What does this fold into?
Amino acid sequence: MTLLELKNISVHYGRIQAISDMSFSVEEGEIVSLIGANGAGKTTTMRTISGLLSPSAGSITFAGEDITRMKAHIRVVHGISQAPEGRGIFPGMTVEENLDMGSYGRKDRTKVSDDLERVFDLFPRLKERIKQLGGTMSGGEQQMLAIGRALMSNPKLLLLDEPSMGLAPQFIRQIFKIVTEINNQGTTVLLVEQNANQALARAHRAFVLETGAITHRGTGKELLANPAVKEAYLGVG
Amino acid sequence: MSTTDGPTLIPDDSSAQEIADREAKMRRRKGWFPGLSDKWNALPRQTQWLFLIIVVVIAYLLPILNPPLITTEPGNNWQIALAQMSVYALIAVGLNVVVGYAGLLDLGYVAFFALGSYTAAMFTSPDSPYVHIPYLWTLPLAMAVAMFFGVVLGVPTLRLRGDYLAIVTLGFGEIVRILATIIPAMKGQVGFQNVGHPPGTDSAGQTIFQNSNGTPWYWLTLTIIIVVLLAAGNLERSRVGRAWIAIREDEDAAEIMGVPTFKYKVWAFAIGASVGGLSGALFAGQVGFVNNQKFDIATSILFVAAVVMGGTGNKVGAILGGALVAYIPLRFTAIAEFKYLIFGAALVIIMIFRPGGLLPARQSLLAYGRLAYNKLRGTNGDIPASGKVVLQSGKGADK
It folds into this structure.
């Protein structure tokens, strides 16, 4: 079943077009990766899906419902949750308070403790640092917190914006392993990455984004084998 | 390939030490009273109340005690000084909701103060040709008027971000002042004399609330401050309060957590405006005279300075900052002329050495309430094996 569908989406910043006529869909249970260079429109796509930006043309459908004009804070309740780029945690709040904010929009407060346990299972590190201020943690820990916080709304679709940004290679692998685990637990994941290698290896399907438009699409393995993609994003000619 | 330049995900011993050091450094930076708020939170509830009651009693006794060295006499009447300090403290508490909690830089807060003053003046002063109502009724009316204009100003401008909001509010502050000058009904510089006051006479038949006697005005304002503080404290701990803090920390992140950011920003603006209106009405009553001279931009900036100096986001700090801003020029009359110079320098110094203000904000923002918070603090370093413990104690707090 199609969970998320973008149809002919265009996004403008003032008069500058960041995304032109983009269409793609995400099926339930998938990991889908969007890869591309700086300025290709990856983060713009993410912010459009989460509702922080509104498209100038096109439509977005989520779980069969048109959400094109829906406010971001309502999309969360409908099941779209984002771990923003640059981690975007609340630096002056503790780990616990950050996670608590993640469940802000929820009505079913009784189930929140189950999700907290799930987050602590995925990231034992967060449990150890429960009272630490978010802003005083290391980059990797902040990334864990951002993902954990996004999971606290028990989303159907998890949007991850550059989870590997600024992390050392061994921890990138670990973050991606956890992403796969989250997916195995039943959450659909849409991933935006510059680290094409990991993103493609982990994805069921993937898209390559160039200057606001999709140029290649296929399964993760296909794109890994695609010579053009290899040359441009995987550093092998 | 180097693995040392990236942040560490699972620290080994040395990096764990490094993190501990960094935390220790952060803690030391907290200032002159290390661990004061921790100690305060660790005290039993009864002891906290006892302390608060003592502080409140002393505050009420201040006009009678007239403590040497602290007093503003002989230069300025101490009771009237106290009345003005309390009004400034109330202003700072109100502005703190806007600037401190929600992080919206409002440089035109004086406009709401002016609206409150004019509401009180135009409905009670014999100089005003309009309907006259008892003074005490003008207090809620001033709040309502200021709140209304807060919403009117807030709805279009709160869609803007930081800098733009500051500029628009700055403009609004000037608009109100200029309107007071050019609208004949608001009487410009001539103003309104004999603004009303609360009813009541003492045993000798003298009016209690005289303009020349600051004590009753101080007590009235102090009482209102306590009520507003209790209300603000409850808001702070509510869902609304947590939403404000989240907006202040990162507006986009708050929005994608499900916080209706726009709505809550308008709320903060309106609530702050109403407190500004209330303090304006109190000020008008105490001084007994309102014209267009007191509501300039410099006053507005002074209000912001009071909040920043006291500790943005800390209501007790705001009271301290507001009272100090009024107190310093009254106490040190020799330097009163240079007050903006001195406040400017003081602000720079405070921002360098105490970036959080005199009393930095650090509230617990948890939905689960104080109980769970203290429990966590009690288990210091020894986190319960199951994450459930944390939330079980919170179930009682959930509706």
